[in-house]
Amino acid sequence: MPNRGRKQRKNKKAPGESVKILISGPRIQRRIQALARQIRRDFPDEPLHLVSVLKGGVFFLTDLARSISGEVSFDFIAVSSYGQDTHSSGQVRLTRDLDSSIEGKTVIVVEDILDTGMTLQYLLKLFEQRKPKHLRVAVLLDKPDRRVAPVRADYVGFSIPNEFVVGYGLDYSERYRNLPYVGVLSLDSALAKKAREK
Ligand code: IMP
Ligand code: MG
Fold it and tell me: Which of 17, 85, 120, 136 sits in a 20 to 30 Å window from 150, CA-based?
């Protein structure tokens, strides 16, 4: 029964929710290998310090860090910008700072998704004040249609349409982060209405 596991996994969602695969796990992995090579080509001789944004950026960071050759270190920061639903409040708050200084380091910010850009704008401002040698941004996903803040990423895994996605680190109310692929979340209409009213 080769298809059974896959079918069960696809159907086992919370009531009223479904996830349709947008980018498969193997495609994500291939793209990350290419991004890792590109980053190393841009900085052939430098130790690289990856700074990931908890929690969504964690899987991207761990896969990217293992694919970049040479010296790599990493650290984490946490911000909160989203509530329990699929709508951004537009406000960004620092909830956990980095462990170590980034002064003089070649820093790559590793984010799951670039949406309005408010989070990245906040982080770039914060990090620039700390005087890194270089500051670059890698995002797995980019939703260019949603941009509000004037920021851009130096390394982009995939540009995607304006849909709410989950998986590979991205959540809906803390769920679905563990999916090995990125999928579009649909809510049935009653739940979607409730989410809009929040
Ligand atoms: P921004 O500040 O609007 O660019 O949003 C960045 C953060 O919002 C991301 O790091 C995610 O945590 C969250 N986010 C934005 N779009 C999505 C999505 O489609 N699914 C899940 N989380 C998202
Ligand atoms: Mg995030």
Answer: 85
